[in-house]
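Key result, reporting period 2: structure in, sequence out.
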């Protein structure tokens, strides 16, 4: 029972980090409509953009990101056990995903292809555009 509680609290922590980024973006996005100062508006827009980017990126189901822990929790036990074997290669997978655009001249960008549409939709919703 104790270990289940510890396991589930780790999952909650993973979701809390992402939720904090999205909530920060939401709160700052609400403030965007109240201020028209150009500099302050740019700071708010970039704060929303960066927080949404980090929140969505953190939900990718690649170890060591928090989305991996969430995926392990919601997958059936047999699939989660097989998926856990990938954990040791997670940092290398991330490095490869970041390196692909450099080697292809930005023609192939898997991270942006996955999180870009979500990031744009959430940012547009929060900023009212």
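The corresponding designed sequence is given below.
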């Amino acid at each position: 029972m104790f270990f289940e509680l510890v396991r589930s609290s780790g999952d909650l922590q993973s979701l809390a980090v992402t939720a904090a980024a999205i909530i920060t973006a939401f709160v700052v996005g609400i403030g965007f409509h109240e201020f028209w100062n150009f500099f302050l508006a740019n700071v708010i827009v970039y704060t929303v953009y960066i927080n949404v980017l980090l929140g969505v990126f953190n939900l990718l189901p690649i170890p060591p990101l928090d989305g991996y822990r969430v995926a392990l929790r919601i997958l059936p036990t047999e699939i989660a056990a097989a998926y856990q074997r990938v954990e040791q290669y997670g940092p290398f997978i991330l490095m490869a995903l970041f390196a692909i655009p450099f080697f292809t001249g930005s023609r192939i960008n898997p991270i942006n292809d996955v999180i870009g549409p979500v990031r744009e939709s959430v940012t547009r919703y929060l900023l009212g555009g």
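DSSP finds six helices and no strands in the chain. The mean pLDDT is 83. This case is discussed further under Risks and Mitigation.
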